[in-house]
Amino acid sequence: MSELLQFLFSGLTVGAVYALVALGFTIIYNASGVVNFAQGEFVMLGGMITVFAHAAGLPLPLAALLAIAATAAIGVGLNKFAIEPARGAPVVSLIIITIGASIFIRGAAQLIFDKQIHSFPSFSGDDPIHVMGATILTQSLWAIGGAFAVFVGLWLFFTRTILGRAVLATSNNRLAAQLVGINTDFVMTLSFTLSAAIGAFAGVLITPITMTSYDVGLGLALKGFAGAMLGGMGNPKGAFAGGLLLGLLEALTAGYLSSQYKEAAAFVVILAVLFFMPQGLFGSKSTDRV
Amino acid sequence: MIKTLKTTVPVALIALGLTGAAHAEIKLGASVSATGPAAFLGDPEAKTLEMLVEELNAKGGINGEEVELVLYDDGGDANKARTFATRLIEDDEVQAIIGGTTTGTSMSILSVAEDAEVPFISLAGAIDIIQPVKPFTFKTPHTDRMACQKIFEDMQKRSITKIGMISGTDGFGASMQAQCKDVVAEYDIEIVADETYDPKDADMTAQLTKIKNAAGIQAVLNPGFGQGPSIVTRNYKQLGIDLPLYQSHGVASDGFIELAGKDAAEGVRLPGTALLVADLLADDDAQKPVVAAYKKAFEDRYEMPVSTFGGYAHDGFALMVNAITAAGSNEPEAIRDALESVAGLAGTTGIYTMSAEDHLGLDLSAFRMLEVRNGAWSIVE
Fold first, then answer.
1. Architecture field, domain B13-142+289-365
2. Looking at this predicted complex, what is its ipTM?
3. How high does pLDDT run on average in chain B?
């Protein structure tokens, strides 16, 4: 029993990491249909800027805020200098641009920061919480709570606010959105800002668990993307659930089968889900009305 | 037009060749992974080589001749390493090569160096690089097999007979896992749990819970490098596992204690080099002056702590300079012979005594068994 609980805690910790990255994907995807492969770099920047600002003497909360603000600004820059000039290009080209941006940001981070692995202290100490013979770190609770808060925030944003609906409308048909008076340029800028800020926030929450270095972005982006696909791309509910589910799958496979198979098992399940439910677990079927 | 080309090109080539020759008589090539996934190994190596060449030239070079370093960054890519090795030999015409941060890049460089018969000192761990012995290939780090032996010796002293292993699936972790399983029987130790983790994983409590529940387990060994072992150490503490934890030389740096946290790292043992405990070495230790001098020079110049990996490059360079000095010639054969007859040369990693059959020249005494006590390294004897 305590064993199962420990595997579940392990899965939730890892799952929260994936869910936070997956949530970052949803906004830009909802606004533009583009999967932003620089999302992992936003997470890396959140962690790295916090580490270096903290080392330079800023208290941790301030360093974290600075990291989130700076990363959001980089998100705006990415939109202004890389995505906007390519407006009208097919989605695939835009995705390739984000891959290029991810490589660029990684290279720049390597020069500006360094090539070592870094971390900063957990928010509320390193003493684990004991629950019926199993343990979980307080930082994992921060990450799970953070992912849940972002999910609720995004869900409210997309369903309850005019701005959120404007984002969805822009994604659905840019021209039609413009015709009903939506400032689509603003919507795009907003979505990159929010997405980058969420990524950086994720980086701040998970760095005490995962550590960070200039090259962690790609691995995180791939796992977050897998989580988002499992849950249903573009849906905050899907991103949150998909990320957690992926983490749980890995931990349970590692615990009950063999750690050799944990990646494979997770991807087999994702493939199976996509085969039978191409829109993911929580995705809605999209139909284009003509 | 073609006529001009025909005349100017050879003239230009001769001019370049002449200026090159007048500038530096000894050309040393290097290809390390200063960027890419092995950057935190290769970066201090590149910095070390640049620093040492400057130091050497300031002191008048080798036998009065300046040394020129041609340094390439292969980014951890074995194909690039092969290209750079070829370029070093054919275009740069170097007399010897140092490098190969990882086992993969080392294997690429060694095949080129062996074909061209140019002496090569590798900075990577795997035993395959020097076993079987190749005429022109040498290496400075101890092998992962030796690390396993050193750890198992220590376990024997503590009467440990049943252990669990949790290994990274990266090249280093996988190779050491295999070597440990290969030599474990010689020490009457049984591996009762054998788990792995991906180097990018965020949590290893599932694997550790499995190991913890294995019957009769007395200690845990974690081969791996990068952030994985720090997370394993934290999770170990989180689960309250009260057994000795052994790490590999892959995490032998102060950064490990910092990342894992002082509390979690307390009591962790690993085989490390003298460089890590420079201040704790006995005054009559043959390695003390070498280690202290390198540590001071590196830390003063780059304002970052020395690492074991930079130490490998230091030793490779020291061996090469020693050999070229002793040979008194730039001939590859002469340098090779001089390398093979190195005896009692103190480096940061150990004291090298090579021979025609041993192109590593270190024994288990080069490893010191270290333990984290009060958040700092201490020597276990």
1. 3-Layer(aba) Sandwich (3.40)
2. 0.87
3. 89
